[in-house]
Each structure stands twice: as C-alpha cells, then as structure tokens.
C-alpha cells in the first residue's frame, strides 16, 4: 500500500473519530438532563414476573426520591426548635428547593379525628372486635375503663364522642400515632433521653440524580448547617434521602475514576518510556487507547441513553487492555530495526491482533448475556473500545510510524528471556509434572474454602455515616423500611382491602411474637366495607336498646345532649377508600395506592416494618390470593445467584469455543499447551480467593471470563510474535509482560475501588492476569527447547 493511501486511510479514520467524539460530547453534556446515572435502582435488573410488581418497586423507591428529611437535635428543646426554624429559613432562599417545611399551620390535634367521627362505629381494633363478640361482654365495665384510662397518645377522640373508647383504640394503631413525632409549637418534635429532635423536610426542584441539582442542594445544605451550628452551638443535623446516597456514589466513582485513571496512565507512560525509550510510541499508544474509550463512551450512551457509575470506573481501567494492540505493533516496529516497513509490520501482527480481539470480544459478549443493564453496558463499552483501539492500529498507526525505531531496552529483553527460560525449564518434562502435582496439592485446600455470597448489597457500599443517620431518623419518626413490601391485588377495591386484611392478620401475629415491629397499609386506615359492616353489627347489641345505653351513659356522668347526639350518630356510614384518599390526612400515604393498575384490577402496597427475614415475610404471604411479597434486594440477589451458578458452565463454554480456533491456527496438539496458562491462572486465582476467605460473587466469575480471554491473548502474542524475533530471544515475551503490566496497572487497581463489585472484579483480574502472564512461556516451551 502506498504512502498516499496510508495517509488517506488515516485521515478518514481521524475524521470519523472526530465525528464520534463530537456526538459523545453532545450526548454527555449537550442535553438538558445528565447522562451519568447515579440511581442504583436503575442499574438493577427486573426480578419480578408480575410487571405490576416492578412498577410498584419503582414507585415506592421514588415516592420520596426527591425529598430530603432533616432532623435538628439539641440537648435544649428551645435551641432545637430555633435551629429548625432557622434551617428552614436559610434553605427556602435557594431555588434548588421547591419547598421547605418545618412549621405546620396551627391546628387542633382533635382535627385528626374529625374525618372518622361519622364512620366511628365501623372502625374497631382486633381486640375490641374480639371483646364485643364475646357473650360475656360488659358494656358498663368497658365504659368505666375508658373513662378512667389515660390517652396513649395526644391524638384521640373526645370522650363524649367515643365513650367506649373504640375509636380511640383504633386511632392509637394508626401510623401517625406510632410515630415519635408530635406537634409542639407548630413543629413536629420528638423527645429522647439526650434531647429534642425537630423535623424539617425539603423537596428538590429537580431530580436527586441530576449532577447540577446535587451540587447546588448539597452546597446550600452545608452552608445552612454551618450557619445554625454557629448560631446554635451544640446543634446537630441528621439527614437522609436519595440525594445524599446518589451524591456519595457519584463522589466515590469520580474518585475511583481519577485514581485508577491517573495511576494507570502514569504507570503505563513510565513503562512505555522505559521499554521503547521514545515519547512517540507513548503518545501513539495513548492516542489509540483514547480513540477506543471515546468510541466506547459514545456508543454506550447512544445505546443505553445513559452511562452508569460502574461503567465509568470500569472504563478508566480499560486503558490497560486497550493499549495492548498498539503495544504489539510498536514492538514489531522496534524489533524490525532498520528493515521496518509499516505494511509488512501490519501483516505480521494482524493474525495475533485479530485472534486476541476475537477472544476478548468472546469474553465480553458472554458478560453481556447477563440480564443486568450495568453489566451489559460494561460489556458493550469494552467490546466497542477494544474494536476501536484495534481498528486504530490497522488504519492509523501505519501512516504515523514510517521510520524505524530504537530496539527494546536490553534490560527488559534480558529480564524477560531469563524469566521465560526459567518458566519453560520448570514446566517441561518430569519437572513440569511434579510442579503441576505440587500446585494441585496447594490449590485443593483453597478450593475447599471457597464459598459464595450473592447479596446485592455487595454491589455498592453506602457510607456508614449515612446508613447510621437514616436508621436513627427511622427510629425517631417510626417509619419503616421500604425495600420490602407486599403487592396486594384484587378485582376491585373491596376485594383488594379484604385480601390486605387477611395479610395484616398474619402480620399482627408476627408483631405479637416480636418478629416484626408493625406495618403500614391502607386496610389498616380504611377497612373493607365487609369489615366495617361487621363492626357495625357488633355494636348493634348496645344501640339496639337505646334506653339502656342512655341510662349507662347518664349514670357515668355524660350530658343528655351528648348522649342523644351519640345515639343518633349510630350506625354511621361506612368510610370509602376514594373519599379517604382525598383527605389531607391521606397525603403521606397515597403512594400505597397503585390506582386502577389494569382493567378489573385494584392494587395497593403494604410495608412491613422491622428487620424480619425474607423467609418470614414470604411465609406471611403464603397461600393468600392476590398477595405477593416484593423484595427487590432478595430478588436481585437470587438472580445473581442463579447466574453465578451457571457461570462455571459459561467459562467452560468459552474454553470450548476457543479450542477450535486455536486448533485451526496452531494444530490440535498445541491446544492444551496454549490454553494451559489461562486455565491454570483461573485455578490459581480460585485457590487464592479461597485462602483469602473471599466469598465468590457473579463479578468474580465474570472477571475469570476475562482472565481466560486476556490469558489467551498473551499466548497468541507469544506464539505469533516469536518467529519474527529469532534474532533477539526474549523480545516477544518482553512485550507480553509489558501488556500484562499495563493490564495490572489498570484492572488491578479496581481491587482498591470503593465499590465492592469492582473490588471483586479487580482482585480476580489482579491474581488471574498476574499468574497467567508468568505461565505464558509454558505454552511455547517445546518450541524453545527444540530450537
């Protein structure tokens, strides 16, 4: 190919790269919304067979997604309340908050009972319902007992409206009565041994996962917090909300990207300078890698419409593998000396690069089969990046590398040759058999120590401070965890409420046994019509003889007007769900109603509170029609476990797919020797993970898939390159070691990531690639000794 054609091809390739880069810039920064996804829920795969359950999980997760909960606390009650008012005033100045609430409009607590007075005779607790159903129920005793008992909460019905205490008992079981927060001085306040806690809530004007919103909101919160801590010494602020978790995840990812990217870039640069002794190869290697990363980022955002945190950090690590293709071409140039010709050099490395690219694409393609959008995006990112980096070697580097280059440094070649000869000597003949037997004996205890952990919480580790503050806020407010919930469906609202009541009976049994703290559901606030009519029937025995009831109340000291008002109010009217949902009291709980989910279907959510196991919660829903336990974390963990169990089969399938390719290229007798380094590297890695008591996850197995691909690449590079460097033994293995070192500097650094999933990924690659690179000379040992 003429020099003119080489330049035309290179210019065309660079113009295409420029267009791809401009598209990537627009996709990332030119649109109104951010393309960087920090919402962990968006990364998780669908786990529920019922599509409505997935919708419900999304609805619940984002019900308060843009809401921030803040609690000011101080040993002095007045200081805590003053700090809350000041906090609200400072935050309200910033338009990043759509609303900030601390003080409530003045109201009488008794107003909470007003919506229920007309329906009071249909609202009974289980205890009152059981008592009324007993033949020996004594109304006079119940009347006297209620008159003399103190209210359990500040929210209650007036005695003249509820002389037997039925409505009062029912109100005490409502969610707002279980909360430790009560209005004081128009502020929701809780008192504990160490002081007072005052609630402040804020709603963002945009998404918690938007980078601009995050930065503005966190800056405003930090400034306001510093201000109130200065003006009210001793004040602490507790905070929770999706904003803080998303910002922490983004910060950790950015730190990982910068750390992995900077260290790997500097390390790879120093290695390339030491080996090639020129700035040109360094710049061209990075240019080729940059093209791969630009193309990978653009295509990933184009295909998935966003890019995940995991992919960002993974992309920073991809630098070490994408540079392999240019390293092989640069090595061929350095080894050719004065006889260098770009076209001949390209022909020389083409088989090795295509075989290496094929094995890498195979490993990443299998990674992309997992129905987990983050893993699929990582696979897409890697496949496009590898292909683009390899393509740049074919289309760009020949035009830029016309002149001969300095040979590889003597110390790198001599060191590589010494290591190559040592490995070859110990892996052939009887020594090889003894060494393999010894390695097997050492590996078996490690394999026996292997165990698995599929917990989705290992995907990412939220800051302990945020988790502790969230738990403390839950303890104060009495609200439960929304990660587990029941989806209750019925043909209509009535059937749905009846099914929810059947579930709540079981949940009450668990609560009585101390297995659950409680639950929140619509049927607990709006009983079914069947239940309300049954409750009215139970009270009929008292009101069927109004004269007797009138006498009891008169003897107890009630005024005649109040007695007549009560008798005329019975039996009241049933309370309908739709009417209740329109009341202000229902506002915090409307997210529990799924609306008319589908024709002839109604659905609601029931939230258990406490730390009950998945098995116990599942048992509560067993054999209840229309009731489904939705546990997103358990579902994703189960899915991870399902695919982790198949991972070994995928690994075996990948090996089998490589076998015919290597058999065609190198002969069937050579296949075991060529595949031995990556296979032994996988076995060694598993043994080391066992000795380290590191539980295996899906991410370990996905990394082992890449160990196979990368290890096969090194064997290919060595097999394809050695015939061209017979004049300088060790030069080809030096380039393999250089490729391995760049991979270890990038992928290996993931072992120190803040994301547990990437830690697993990085540690496995660190062990696997390191071992495989050392064992690669065994794949050509017979050739070396025969020569």
Q: Quick summary of this structure?
A:
With 787 residues, this protein is α+β, with helices and mostly antiparallel strands.
Task: Characterise the protein shown here.
The protein has about 775 residues and is an alpha+beta fold. Among the domains are: about 350 residues, Multidrug efflux transporter AcrB transmembrane domain (Multidrug efflux transporter AcrB transmembrane fold, Up-down Bundle), CATH 1.20.1640.10; about 100 residues, Alpha-Beta Plaits. Helices cover about 65% and strands about 10% of the residues. It is built from 33 helices and twelve strands. β5 and β6 form a beta hairpin. The longest helix is centred in the first third of the chain and has 35 residues. The C terminus is likely disordered.
User: Any guess at the CATH architecture of the domain at 3-26 and 247-448 and 667-786?
Assistant: Up-down Bundle
Query: What is the approximate shape?
Result: elongated
Number of helices: 33
Biggest sheet statistics: 6 strands, antiparallel
At CATH level 3, the topology of the domain at 3-26 and 247-448 and 667-786 is Multidrug efflux transporter AcrB transmembrane fold
Distance between the termini: 35 Å
| Helix-and-strand structural type | alpha+beta
Q: DSSP strand (E) fraction?
A: 5-15%
CATH class of the domain at 3-26 and 247-448 and 667-786: Mainly Alpha
Mean residue pLDDT = 83
Q: Could you name the ranges where pLDDT drops below 50 across 5 or more consecutive residues?
A: 782-787
Radius of gyration (CA) equals: 35 Å
Q: What is the β-strand count?
A: 12
């Amino acid at each position: 190919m003429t020099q003119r054609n080489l330049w035309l091809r290179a210019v065309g390739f660079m113009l295409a790269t420029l267009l791809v880069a401009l598209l990537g810039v627009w996709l990332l920064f030119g649109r109104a919304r951010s393309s960087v996804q920090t919402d962990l829920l968006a990364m998780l795969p669908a786990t529920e067979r019922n599509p409505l359950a997935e919708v419900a999980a999304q609805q619940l997760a984002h019900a308060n997604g843009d809401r921030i909960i803040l609690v000011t606390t101080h040993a002095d009650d007045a200081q805590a309340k003053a700090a809350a008012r000041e906090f609200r005033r400072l935050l309200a100045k910033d338009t990043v908050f759509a609303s900030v609430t601390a003080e409530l409009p003045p109201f009488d607590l008794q107003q909470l009972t007003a919506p229920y007075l007309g329906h009071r005779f249909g609202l009974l607790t289980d205890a009152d319902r059981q008592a009324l159903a007993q033949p020996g129920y004594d109304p006079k005793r119940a009347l006297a007992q209620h008159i003399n008992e103190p209210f359990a909460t500040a929210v209650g019905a007036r005695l003249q409206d509820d002389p037997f205490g039925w409505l009062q008992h029912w109100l005490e079981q409502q969610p707002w009565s279980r909360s430790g927060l009560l209005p004081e001085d128009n502020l929701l306040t809780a008192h504990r041994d160490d002081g007072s806690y005052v609630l402040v809530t804020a709603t963002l004007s945009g998404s918690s996962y938007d980078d601009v919103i995050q930065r503005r909101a966190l800056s405003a919160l930090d400034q306001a917090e510093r201000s109130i801590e200065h003006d009210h010494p001793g004040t602490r602020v507790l905070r929770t909300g999706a904003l803080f978790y998303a910002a922490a995840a983004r910060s950790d990812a950015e730190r990982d990207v910068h750390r992995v990217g900077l260290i790997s870039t500097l390390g790879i640069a120093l290695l390339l300078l030491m080996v090639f002794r020129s700035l040109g190869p360094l710049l061209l290697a990075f240019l080729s890698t940059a093209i791969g990363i630009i193309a990978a980022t653009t295509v990933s955002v184009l295909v998935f419409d966003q890019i995940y945190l995991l992919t960002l950090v993974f992309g920073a690590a991809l630098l070490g593998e994408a540079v392999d293709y240019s390293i092989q071409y640069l090595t061929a140039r350095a080894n050719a000396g004065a006889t260098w010709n770009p076209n001949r050099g390209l022909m020389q490395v083409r088989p090795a690069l295509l075989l290496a690219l094929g094995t890498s694409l195979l490993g990443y393609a299998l990674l992309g089969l997992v129905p987990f959008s983050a893993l699929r995006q990582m696979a897409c990112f890697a496949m496009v990046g590898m292909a683009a980096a390899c393509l740049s070697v074919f289309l760009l580097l020949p035009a830029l590398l016309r002149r001969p280059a300095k040979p590889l440094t003597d110390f790198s070649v001599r060191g590589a040759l010494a290591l190559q000869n040592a490995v070859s000597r110990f892996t052939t003949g009887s020594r090889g058999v003894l060494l393999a037997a010894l390695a097997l004996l050492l590996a078996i205890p490690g394999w026996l120590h292997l165990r698995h952990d599929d917990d989705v919480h290992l995907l990412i580790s939220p800051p302990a401070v945020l988790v502790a503050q969230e738990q403390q806020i839950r303890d104060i407010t009495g609200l439960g965890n929304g990660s587990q919930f029941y989806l209750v469906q019925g043909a209509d609202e009535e059937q749905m409420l009846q099914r929810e009541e059947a579930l709540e009976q079981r949940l009450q049994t668990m609560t009585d046994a101390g297995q659950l703290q409680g639950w929140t559901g619509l049927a607990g606030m709006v009983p079914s019509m069947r239940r309300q009519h049954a409750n009215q029937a139970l009270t009929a025995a008292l009101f069927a003889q109004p004269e007797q009831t009138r006498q009891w109340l008169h003897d107890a000291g009630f005024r005649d007007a109040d007695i007549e008002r009560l008798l005329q109010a019975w039996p009241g009217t049933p309370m309908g769900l739709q009417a209740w949902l329109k009341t202000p009291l229902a506002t915090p709980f409307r997210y529990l109603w799924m609306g008319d989910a589908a024709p002839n279907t109604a659905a609601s959510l029931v939230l258990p509170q406490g730390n009950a196991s998945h098995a116990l919660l599942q048992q509560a829903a067993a054999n209840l029609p229309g009731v489904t336990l939705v546990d997103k974390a358990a579902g994703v963990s189960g899915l991870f476990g399902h695919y982790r169990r198949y991972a070994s089969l995928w690994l075996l399938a990948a090996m089998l797919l490589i076998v015919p390719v290597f058999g065609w290229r190198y002969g069937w007798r050579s296949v075991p020797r060529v595949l031995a380094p990556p296979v032994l590297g996988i076995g060694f890695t598993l043994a080391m993970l066992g000795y380290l008591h590191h539980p295996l996850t899906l991410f370990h197995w996905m990394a082992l898939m890449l160990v196979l691909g990368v290890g096969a690449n090194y064997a290919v590079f060595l097999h394809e390159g050695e015939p061209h460097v017979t004049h300088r033994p060790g030069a080809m293995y030096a380039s393999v070691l250089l490729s391995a070192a760049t991979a270890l500097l990038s992928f290996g650094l993931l072992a120190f990531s803040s994301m547990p999933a990437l830690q697993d990924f990085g540690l496995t690659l660190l062990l696997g690639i390191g071992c495989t690179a050392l064992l690669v000379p065994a794949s050509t040992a017979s050739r070396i000794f025969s020569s």
